Amino acid sequence: MSAEDKKEETTQNSTEFFESIGNKVAGFSATTNGATQEDEEYRPVEEIESLCMNCGENGVTRLLLTAIPYFREVVIMSFSCEHCNVQNNEIQAAGTVQPKGTHYELRLTSLEDFSRQVVKSDTATVKFIEMDLEIPPGRGQLTNVEGLLTTVMDDLEMNQEARKQQSPEVAEKIAEIITKGRSMLAGDAFPFRFYVDDPAGNSFIAPDLKDGVGKWEKREFVRTPEQNALLGLGDTTEAPA
What is the pLDDT of residues 162-175, one digit of tens each? Predict the structure, then answer.
């Protein structure tokens, strides 16, 4: 099988198993219509009328509590506005801040690795190590490696024309990052690594039973007083286990 065929197969699999959060919530909303609490697959979707920050009209926010395999429960949130067609999706941890922070790292060696599920909470930092490209804490995401890297590349490309006019040197450096990122997505830059570091302990990279030594890693760490303060925990440094 050629690299192009493998890429197509991987993309199809990621589309099947990692559909957009909005579609996932909408799907649950449809399938649970008329369900009872006794139904095994019952998943209540709560709908809340919310102000659209784009047009000022009222839209709808849908909330769904769901479980991530090998991880824990998360709340999936999907907002849509029928007036201006704006949509956005994010996730939040269903529980509290964990006793320790977590650091997950994955070494990608094949196109199949792009389908690994990723939970990035709003307190997590993501870094693609070989590119020295860091994504700071922000909107929570439920995605996979391919979706995460594609979103970053698309965001960088969005303002390139303006950068070329305002700051050509910066635009040139970003162009190099985009070229390398697209090469990674095409399967031409293996192996490479990325990590998700979350002081709240609410992020995740999915493991695989076939992972060997050095492929997938998880470690926990004691938060610094500064990290506790950022999480609203105050100066509550924990003693090492």
Answer: 999 999 999 999 99
Q: Can you give the pLDDT at residue 44?
A: 77
> 79: which strand partners?
61, 88
DSSP character at residue 72: -
Q: What is the pTM of this model?
A: 0.75
Percent of the chain with pLDDT over 90: 67
> Which residue is it, tokens 């790292």?
105
* Helix, strand counts (H, E) of the chain: 6, 12
Could you tell me the CA-to-CA distances from 60 to 87, 188, 200 in Å, in that order? 10, 42, 29
For the chain, domains (ranges, CATH) are: 43-95 (2.20.25.420), 101-231 (2.60.120.1040)
The Cα-based distances of 57 to 19, 22, 50, 54, 81 in angstroms read 27, 19, 9, 8, 8
